[in-house]
Amino acid sequence: MQSQLRSINLTELETLLKSWSFPTYRARQILNWLHQKHITEFGEMKNLPKKLLGKLSESSLVSVLKLRETPKSNDQSSQKYLFETQDGHFLESVLIVQGGRNTVCVSTQLGCKMKCSFCASGMGKFVRNLTAGEIIEQVSRVARTLSPLEVGNGRDRSLQAITNVVFMGMGEPLDNYDATLRAIKILMADWGFGLGGRRITVSTCGIIPKIEQFVKDVDGRVRLSISLHSSQQTVRNELVPINKRYNLDDLMSALEQLYRKLKREITFEYTLIQGMNNSPEAASGLARLANRIHAKVNIIPYNPVREADYQSPTPAQVKTFCALLEKKGVRVTVRQTAGRDINAACGQLRLDREPIRGTSGPKLICSIKFNLPPIP
């Protein structure tokens, strides 16, 4: 069975080249083609000997995703990328263009086991975890479609303008822990994408043991966002069912320990739903939790999903809720609704062309929870 070349790290590739009697410096050349020039075929690796290219093509795959569709939102602020996997399933990534940044939001699973009641990702069946190579290729394929920057009199594909990567697409990243961690290490490596850890954000609904392990494994360098959505146990049980296993009290205790140790900002993601979690009492409860760890709150006005019986807040309700938080000293941002017209807004992406529970037939829509953290 052929391996996925984008999943391999520098040490593993050097070991492989040694076993084939090729010099190890070729490893960095290969990885540069993959992660800086974003090639999709071995034939594009112009500085490698044919014998090495032959060995690579026999044993590995340089591309495992087929790009099927790239709809762009009317305001040009976001673009969806629909990919087909080798086993015939579909996943989506999103490019968000905002504030001088090009942010790629990647999926980590085909479907989602967490079953958050307001999010379309969990409304279809869970199929499988994505590999690190499939996660990384999402970033490369998006980068490949961007216009290269001018360099002197020519163009250099190594200078693609991807500035941020957020793990907020289909799936719970920490439920696919090994692949997520491997992909992040490739994104941060000097032989990989060379992104600083503060330009990478991982969103989780609150799997406490995995959060603690993840922070340790990335040395606290990667931004962390918590999909909170309610400060009340009973409400969060409905919105985020994993709360029944890892409840708010335990989650906050774990986050307090992390904050004391790292002194790094954590973001609370809060999908605002009319009549569910937008009361003054809800705002007060959220402020209490945020102030315990000096968390920033990212308010996400609910984006409709036809299978969920929830209502979006009015602009006035969003403004009032944010004002209540700010009055209590909480730093608040409001997620701009981007991509709703192409079903790429928060909560609207799901496992493409997979049947939804209680329905039949293919569905060409997907669910995403992207967050755009400020760059220091």
From TrEMBL:
EC number: 2.1.1.192
InterPro entries: Aldolase_TIM, Methyltransferase_A, RlmN_N, RNA_MTrfase_RlmN, rRNA_lsu_MTrfase_RlmN/Cfr, rSAM, rSAM_sf
Keyword hit for Zinc: no
Active-site residues from the entry: E92, C346
Compartments, record wording: Cytoplasm
Top EC group: transferase
Cofactor(s) in the UniProt record: [4Fe-4S] cluster
UniProt superkingdom: Bacteria
Primary site of residence: cytoplasm
RNA-binding as UniProt keyword: no
Molecular function terms from GO: 4 iron, 4 sulfur cluster binding; metal ion binding; rRNA (adenine(2503)-C2-)-methyltransferase activity; rRNA binding; tRNA (adenine(37)-C2)-methyltransferase activity; tRNA binding
Residues annotated for [4Fe-4S] cluster binding in this entry: C112, C116, C119
Cofactor binding note of this UniProt entry: Binds 1 [4Fe-4S] cluster. The cluster is coordinated with 3 cysteines and an exchangeable S-adenosyl-L-methionine.
Record field: transmembrane: none
Keywords, sorted A to Z: 4Fe-4S, Cytoplasm, Disulfide bond, Iron, Iron-sulfur, Metal-binding, Methyltransferase, rRNA processing, S-adenosyl-L-methionine, Transferase, tRNA processing
A Pfam match: Radical_SAM
UniProt GO cellular component terms: cytoplasm
Binding residues annotated for S-adenosyl-L-methionine, in chain numbering: G171, E172, S203, S227, L228, H229, N303
Radical SAM core domain residues: 98-341
Catalytic activity of the protein: adenosine(2503) in 23S rRNA + 2 reduced [2Fe-2S]-[ferredoxin] + 2 S-adenosyl-L-methionine = 2-methyladenosine(2503) in 23S rRNA + 5'-deoxyadenosine + L-methionine + 2 oxidized [2Fe-2S]-[ferredoxin] + S-adenosyl-L-homocysteine; adenosine(37) in tRNA + 2 reduced [2Fe-2S]-[ferredoxin] + 2 S-adenosyl-L-methionine = 2-methyladenosine(37) in tRNA + 5'-deoxyadenosine + L-methionine + 2 oxidized [2Fe-2S]-[ferredoxin] + S-adenosyl-L-homocysteine
UniProt function note: Specifically methylates position 2 of adenine 2503 in 23S rRNA and position 2 of adenine 37 in tRNAs.
Protein family per UniProt: Belongs to the radical SAM superfamily. RlmN family.
Name of the protein in question: Probable dual-specificity RNA methyltransferase RlmN
